[in-house]
């Protein structure tokens, strides 16, 4: 159990790291700076001052120190909280103020280097540190769960990486097996202990996934390779840099150890991501049930596909993998034993294993790379041209477009972004959908092919409600024939069987409708426009009527969304019990200027229907789950 944690469950180190800029280094070079500046006021107010890290006795995983040049102090002189019982040895003069180089290791100074000049033994920290900085000696860096019985803190006066000939300015040997007291706030020469944590991190990715990882949520941080990596996985994890990661990058997460294969084989994830954004890599997208032993991440230039960074880490759970682990430009955010593709809303379960009708919302989106549900390689999507706001859509059993244009189809009509339409097996003279279903998106005037989609509908492969295949997203699956494709699936109440706790919208980019495209009474609904709606907008769904309050407070939804893409607003995101009678939607451009403002009643005091269009927002699904986890996408 960790000690020395600040209020709210965040450690002092985590809190400070959030505002720190860590300088990266190219792969396989001298360890990069990882020390963070701590203010004097903070240093004098150590959370848990006097608390013994070793009471009760534990296995120490990491220790965080504040560096301030100071002289060696003897054990038992009364100057320490418990007279520095853990200090076994201290030698050297007080370092000169300025930047020094510190190594935290199991090795004493004279044994720090091998014959070839490389570091020897387990290195818990190595990097330049300045007066007032703090650093962490972490066993997890070398894949261990605990520090060795003795830990050496060695100071080299020069601020650059030392070698075997560099003189040592000062070193302290600390007893770290917890047979002696080790209190927070204690000063050991130039080092003040400000935080300690025991055992594992408590954030095991493999524990969260139940021992087998099927889905990884990763953040693209755009960082250079850390050296050493914060978690080397006993040498299994590697990072090689060939350039500087940009503000956007193409990221491929795959089981393929060769980039050439990764570019053509199904991947856990393959897409263009902006720095700070997260991605979901699923084993199912790569045609697997769980991640293989080794996972590779390729960071590529989004325009040229030039290799910027190559990462390898272990995902079979034989090596430690924690939430928060960073490998170069990616950070582990979440792990799951479920792919997230198939939920309780399985299309095949809804249709009792025999699909006779499928309802879609037309999103107008381009093909995702990879598809969120690749159906173990059965689903494909190919873009030929840009999909316009209104398109001709054919849903058919025909694998050839020429045949699809003349043969009876499940659906064939013009649809506009945001429209919900139903494809029926009987419309093509069938009792149910065949093994493979094809969707052709065509130019409405010329019938030129713009997008071709294929997916499996015989229920031998997973198919989920809300699955997206290019410009269409599944919103309903029917075990009974809907009687042709003329009747749309919209018009269902969001308030049955109860008030919605989550609403899924499609961002259509449309202007305010006149007259309103819903049944809410005048006065309960407003829509105002202040500018041109962007193709990518920041969309806030909030209970706050003031834009400033909506930005400053937790919202049902607050993120960027592209035209034609769905998003989910959930009461759980804002900590509320239910949607209110005055729910506000704000659409902002890239300068956070409001270009459209919407107010509507989401409390069910007014009609709230699937298919309702509120300005640029069209309701496409509703859920009684306060977190909206069953509304995928």
Description of the molecule:
The protein has 633 residues and is mainly beta. It contains seven helices and 37 strands. Helix content is 5%, strand content 33%. The strands form eight sheets. Strands 1-6-2-10-9 form a five-stranded antiparallel sheet. Strands 3-8-7-4-5 form a five-stranded antiparallel sheet, with no helix packed on it. The longest helix has 6 residues, at 12-17. The radius of gyration is 29 Å and the shape is elongated.
Give the helix/strand class.
Answer: mainly beta
User: Radius of gyration, rounded?
Assistant: 29 Å
Q: What is the terminal-to-terminal distance?
A: 36 Å
Largest sheet: 5 strands, antiparallel
- Count helical runs: 7
* Uncertain stretches: 1-47, 340-344, 484-490
Tertiary shape: elongated
Bin the strand percentage.
Answer: 25-35%
How many E-type strands? 37
Quickly list its features.
5% helix, single chain, mainly beta, 5-stranded antiparallel β-sheet, 633 residues, disordered N terminus
Give a brief description.
The chain is mainly β. The chain contains 7 helices and 37 strands. The longest helix is centred in the first third of the chain and has 6 residues, at 12-17.
């Amino acid at each position: 159990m960790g000690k020395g944690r600040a209020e709210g469950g965040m450690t002092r180190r985590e809190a400070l790291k959030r505002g720190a800029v860590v300088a990266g280094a190219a792969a396989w070079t001298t360890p990069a700076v990882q020390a963070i500046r701590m203010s004097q006021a903070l240093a004098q107010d150590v959370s848990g001052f006097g608390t013994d890290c070793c009471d009760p006795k534990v296995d120490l995983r990491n220790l965080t120190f504040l560096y301030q040049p100071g002289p060696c102090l003897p054990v038992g002189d009364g100057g320490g909280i418990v007279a520095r019982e853990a200090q076994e040895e201290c030698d050297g003069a007080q370092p000169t103020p300025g930047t020094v180089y510190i190594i935290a290791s199991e090795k004493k100074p004279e044994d720090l280097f091998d014959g070839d000049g490389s570091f020897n033994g387990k290195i818990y920290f190595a990097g330049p540190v300045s007066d007032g900085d703090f650093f962490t000696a972490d066993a997890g860096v070398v894949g261990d769960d605990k520090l060795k019985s003795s830990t050496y803190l060695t100071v080299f006066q020069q601020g650059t990486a030392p070698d075997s000939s560099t003189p040592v300015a000062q070193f302290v040997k600390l007893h770290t097996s917890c047979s002696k007291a080790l209190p927070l706030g204690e000063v050991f020469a130039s080092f003040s202990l400000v935080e300690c944590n025991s055992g594992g991190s408590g954030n095991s990715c493999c524990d969260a996934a139940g021992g087998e990882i099927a889905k990884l949520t990763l953040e693209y941080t755009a960082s250079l390779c850390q050296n050493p990596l914060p978690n080397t996985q006993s040498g299994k994890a590697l990072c090689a840099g060939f350039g500087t990661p940009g503000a956007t990058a193409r990221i491929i997460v795959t089981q393929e150890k060769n980039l050439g294969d990764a570019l053509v084989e199904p991947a856990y994830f393959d897409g263009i991501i902006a720095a700070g954004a997260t991605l979901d890599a699923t084993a199912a997208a790569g045609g697997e049930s769980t991640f293989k032993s080794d996972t590779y991440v390729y960071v590529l230039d989004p325009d040229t596909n030039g290799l910027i960074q190559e990462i390898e880490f272990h995902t079979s759970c034989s090596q430690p993998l924690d939430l928060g682990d960073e490998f170069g430009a990616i950070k582990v955010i979440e792990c799951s034993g479920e792919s997230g593709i198939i939920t309780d809303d399985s299309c095949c379960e809804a249709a009792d294993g025999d699909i006779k009708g499928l309802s879609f919302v037309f999103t107008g989106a381009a093909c995702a790379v990879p598809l969120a549900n690749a159906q173990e390689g059965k689903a494909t999507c190919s873009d030929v041209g840009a999909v316009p706001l209104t398109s001709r859509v054919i849903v058919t059993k025909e694998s050839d477009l020429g045949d699809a244009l003349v043969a009876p189809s499940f659906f064939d009509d013009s649809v506009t972004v945001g429209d919900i339409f139903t494809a029926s097996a009987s419309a093509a003279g069938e009792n149910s959908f065949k093994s493979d279903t094809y969707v052709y998106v065509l130019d409405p005037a010329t019938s030129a092919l713009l997008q071709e989609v294929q997916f499996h509908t015989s229920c031998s492969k997973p198919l989920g409600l809300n699955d997206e295949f290019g410009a269409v997203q599944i919103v309903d699956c029917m075990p009974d024939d809907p009687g042709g494709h003329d009747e749309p699936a919209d018009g269902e109440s969001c308030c049955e069987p109860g008030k919605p706790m989550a609403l899924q919208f499609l961002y259509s980019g449309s202007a305010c409708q006149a007259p309103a495209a819903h049944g809410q009474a005048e006065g309960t609904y407003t829509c105002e426009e202040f500018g041109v709606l962007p193709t990518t907008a920041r969309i806030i769904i909030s209970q706050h009527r003031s834009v400033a309050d909506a930005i400053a407070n937790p919202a049902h939804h607050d993120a960027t969304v592209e035209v034609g893409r769905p998003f989910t607003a959930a009461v759980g995101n804002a900590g509320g019990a239910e949607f209110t009678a005055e729910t506000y939607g704000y659409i902002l451009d890239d300068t956070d200027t409001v270009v459209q403002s919407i107010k509507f009643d989401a409390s069910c005091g007014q009609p709230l229907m699937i298919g309702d269009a509120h300005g640029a927002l069209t309701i496409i699904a509703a859920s009684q789950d306060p977190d909206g986890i069953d509304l995928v996408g």
